[in-house]
Every structure is written in structure tokens, then in C-alpha cells.
């Protein structure tokens, strides 16, 4: 069965971006070390510390499909239809796809709900995992019981306000198993299986 996980960089006080969507220092650890981790985008690679490298390599190479919300898709211009993880993207949106989506984003699937996105992403991913990379979609997927594991790269910074990783969960609280912890430079990487 295809596993569904999340991954986002988060401030110590729970934010994935400032109110203007700027992640500020949250991504600094991607380029703060000496170990090169190539991305699927030509000319782009990460330089992380030795402890973070295996974790990042696993998250990149194991990802068979990535789910994003429409806001993130628009902000990134759909990653030019080639996300750094190399996986096809499934976008959750209530708006029609861009008019030129078939030409500009042939590897991208547009869906109208989180349930449809997870089903489509699992089919695309095959025996690899699905990663959800948008805070609002993560919140909805957690409420629907569709997430198997939460991955957090916690960065030592306090934002005070902004866009929360988990926001307002609508359902009951979510119990997690004990974390796998990787202590990196400028990021503490935490992986929590969701308790079933």
C-alpha cells in the first residue's frame, strides 16, 4: 500500500511561512552544509550537513507523487512542471487549471478535492510514497485520516505569526507514534508515524 506522508520546514512556533508567504530562514539548511544532494531539476542541488543528507535523499528519491494546493502551485509556477523531487504533481484546486496547462504542465494533474488528489497521487506513485507539501491540504488530509506519517524539518527561528503547518484541525486530536529524530545543522528533522 502506498504511504502518504507530509514534509514541510517549520519554525519552532509552528509556522511554515510568514504572513506574506515568505519562508524566510526556513530553507537555509538546504544550502548550509558540505554534502551535495542533487535535485531532479537541472542545475539545482542542495548542500546540506552530513546528518541531514540521508533523510533528504530518501524524501527526494522515494517520492512518487507530490500533492500541492493551488496557491503553492501558482507561487512556484508549477515548478516548471519539474518539481525538485522529480515526481509528478497533483494540485488540489477549486478553480479551473491554467488555460495552457496541457502544454505547460503535462505531468501535472488537477483535482477538485483532497480525497481525489490522494487517490490520483497513489495511483501515480505506485510502490513509492506520496508527499503532501501544502499546509492547508495537509490539514484537510489529516482531518480525513489520509496521512500515514508527518515529517517536519524544524528550524531554530520564531516567526510569531504567519501560516501554520497544522492550522486549525477540524476533527479530533491526532495521536502520533514516537518520532524518528535526525539532528541536523540549522534543522531538527522529525518523522512521526500517525497512530492508527
Walk me through what this model shows.
- Strand 5, helix 2 and strand 6 form a beta-alpha-beta unit.
- This protein is an alpha/beta fold and 196 residues long.
- An eight-stranded mixed β-sheet has the order 7-6-5-8-1-9-12-11, sandwiched between helices. Strands 2-10 form a two-stranded antiparallel ribbon.
- 21% of the residues lie in helices and 29% in strands.
- The mean pLDDT is 95.
Topology:
Elements: E1 4-11, E2 15-17, E3 35-38, E4 45-48, H1 52-61, E5 63-69, H2 70-75, E6 89-92, H3 101-104, E7 109-111, H4 114-125, E8 129-132, H5 135-143, E9 149-155, E10 163-164, E11 180-183, E12 188-193
Parallel strand pairs: 1-8, 1-9, 5-6, 5-8, 6-7
Antiparallel strand pairs: 2-10, 3-4, 9-12, 11-12
Specify the helix fraction band: 10-25%
H/E topology pattern: EEEEHEHEHEHEHEEEE
| Percent of residues in beta strands | 25-35%
Q: Structural class of the secondary elements?
A: alpha/beta
Low-pLDDT stretches are none
Question: Mind telling me the C-alpha Rg?
Answer: 16 Å
Amino acid at each position: 500500500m502506498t504511504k502518504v506522508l507530509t514534509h514541510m520546514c517549520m519554525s519552532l512556533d509552528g509556522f511554515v511561512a510568514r504572513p506574506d508567504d515568505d519562508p524566510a530562514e526556513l530553507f537555509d539548511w538546504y544550502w548550509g552544509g558540505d554534502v551535495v544532494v542533487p535535485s531532479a531539476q537541472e542545475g539545482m542541488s542542495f548542500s546540506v550537513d552530513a546528518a541531514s543528507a540521508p533523510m533528504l535523499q530518501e524524501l527526494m528519491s522515494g517520492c512518487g507523487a507530490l500533492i500541492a494546493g493551488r496557491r503553492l502551485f501558482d507561487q512556484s509556477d508549477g515548478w516548471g512542471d519539474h518539481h525538485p523531487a522529480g515526481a509528478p504533481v497533483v494540485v488540489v484546486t477549486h478553480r479551473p487549471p491554467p488555460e495552457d496547462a496541457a502544454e505547460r504542465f503535462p505531468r501535472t494533474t488537477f483535482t477538485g478535492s483532497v480525497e481525489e488528489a490522494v487517490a490520483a497521487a497513489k495511483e501515480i506513485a505506485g510502490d513509492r510514497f506520496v508527499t503532501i507539501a501544502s499546509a492547508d491540504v495537509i490539514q484537510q488530509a489529516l482531518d480525513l485520516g489520509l496521512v500515514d506519517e508527518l515529517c517536519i524539518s524544524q528550524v531554530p527561528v520564531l516567526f510569531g505569526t504567519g501560516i501554520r503547518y497544522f492550522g486549525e484541525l477540524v476533527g479530533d486530536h491526532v495521536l502520533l507514534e514516537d518520532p524518528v529524530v535526525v539532528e541536523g545543522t540549522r534543522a531538527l528533522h522529525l518523522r512521526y508515524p500517525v497512530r492508527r
